[in-house]
Amino acid sequence: MKVGFNMLVCSSLVTREHLPELKIVKKAGADGVEIPVMEGKVSHYKELGGMLDGIGLGRTSAMAILDMAYDPLSDSKKVRQAAVDNMKLMIDRSEAVGAEVMCGALYQVIGHFSGKAPTEIEKKRAADMLRTVAGYAKSAGVKLGIEALNRFEAYVVTTQAASADLVKRVGRPNVGLHYDTFHANIEEKDPVGAIKKYGKIINHFHVSANDRGTPGQDHIDWKATFKALRGTGYEGWIVVEAFGDALPGLAAATKIWRKLFDSNEQLIRDSVSFVRKQWNAAK
């Protein structure tokens, strides 16, 4: 198991100016960082990867489809091809930075809703797109983790069952289920049971408090969560994901309307330590 920290709490584009936070992550005892890959040149991520090598931090990456011009569910074949090209670009950035896994809502534009439940054709289109890019990702050495989002952010995949169904439809060994405790807390009738049920296909795991602040300072049953995850034989990344109010645009997108932690340093230090302790106690 490796502990990571998602850098979206600092920026949607990680640069050298975030070196202080990166060094704090390393000092806190994390194995790596999760890098957002929604913007920027591939060359930037190559340079960033070299900088992270120098610090001694491994990498995963996080993505999101933010523009209807890249909607994989579109009726337009041209737009669906643009979605494939956009996904390949994010895979290119992930490869350049040295990410082992690229995770997120790989199947739809975040925040877009049809007003109805997902249709069979929408599920098919999502699977077709992911099957198309899975081989590309494999050649880049990148696994893909399908994350179920809550109903206020997505509608195609909101439960682990729906995520598992999409994983099955795609049918590629480097495509798995990305479990996030924040979203599961909202959507799963039995969050811990879902870990046990789908543990064999989980290839990425987000530790995220129910208020998206510091894990452990919330009401999620962490003891049972870590015990269940460890019981599946999971050996991948466990990445802390939290969001703050420092970046107005990101705060608005993640619906953060109040201060959830004292500082990024406190968040990083406490959450990385928390994950280590919970994992060790779950033996």
Note down, in words, how this protein is organized.
This protein is an alpha/beta fold. The protein has one domain: Alpha-Beta Barrel (TIM Barrel), CATH 3.20.20. Helix content is 44%, strand content 18%. An eight-stranded parallel β-barrel has the order 1-2-3-4-5-6-7-8, surrounded by seven helices. Helix 1 (19-27) packs parallel to helix 10, helix 3 (77-97) packs parallel to helix 4 (120-139) and helix 7 (191-198) runs parallel beside helix 8. It is globular. The model has no long low-confidence stretch (mean pLDDT 96).
Q: Please state the CA-atom Rg, rounded to the nearest Å.
A: 18 Å
CATH superfamily: Divalent-metal-dependent TIM barrel enzymes
CATH fold annotation: TIM Barrel
**Fraction of residues in helix:** 40-55%
Quick overview:
The chain is α/β, with parallel strands linked by helices and 283 residues long.
SSE topology sketch:
Layout: E1 2-6, H1 19-27, E2 32-36, H2 42-55, E3 58-65, H3 77-97, E4 99-109, H4 120-139, E5 143-147, H5 160-170, E6 175-180, H6 181-187, H7 191-198, E7 202-207, H8 222-231, E8 237-240, H9 248-253, H10 264-281
Parallel strand pairs: 1-2, 1-8, 2-3, 3-4, 4-5, 5-6, 6-7, 7-8
Q: Can you tag this structure with a few keywords?
A:
283 residues; alpha/beta; TIM Barrel; eight-stranded parallel beta barrel; 8 strands
